[in-house]
Design brief:
The protein is 60% helix and 0% strand. With 119 residues, the protein is an all-alpha fold. Helix 2 runs antiparallel to helix 3 and helix 2 packs across helix 4.
Length: 119
């Protein structure tokens, strides 16, 4: 996913709590969902960055051969300018792009529907 094309703000934005808990009915559940998605995004970004920087890795034992690579610096700057994973996850949640489910709630609803069928 290209996170640079995301509409997520680069800086912190004040959000209405009621908008965040609209889908779940619970602000804590909403924050937990956003946090889990932020962790997923963070891992994905880190893997992408590691793959790109691995191309520039030198396996020499000499400390004298350390040099700055302009491409490596540009890649690092690109990732530094990206919105933080928490901001990306919050924007995805607000836009309804995150799929989430509560297994406890799903099993409770299925048990209730079975009870209704038996009555």
């Amino acid at each position: 996913m290209d996170y640079k094309k995301s509409k997520a703000p680069v800086n912190t934005v004040t959000r209405n709590i009621m908008d965040l808990c609209e889908d779940t009915g619970n602000i804590y559940e909403s924050v937990a969902i956003i946090a889990k998605r932020a962790n997923q995004i963070s891992v994905q970004i880190k893997e992408d960055l590691s793959k790109k920087l691995a191309e520039f890795a030198s396996y020499n034992d000499s400390l004298e051969e350390v040099f700055e690579n302009r491409e490596q610096i540009e890649i690092s700057r690109y990732y530094e300018k990206l919105p933080k994973p928490s901001l990306l996850a919050t924007q995805e949640f607000v836009e309804g792009k995150i799929y989430w489910r509560d297994p406890a709630r799903d099993s409770q609803q299925s048990a209730n529907s079975e009870g209704e069928r038996l009555s």
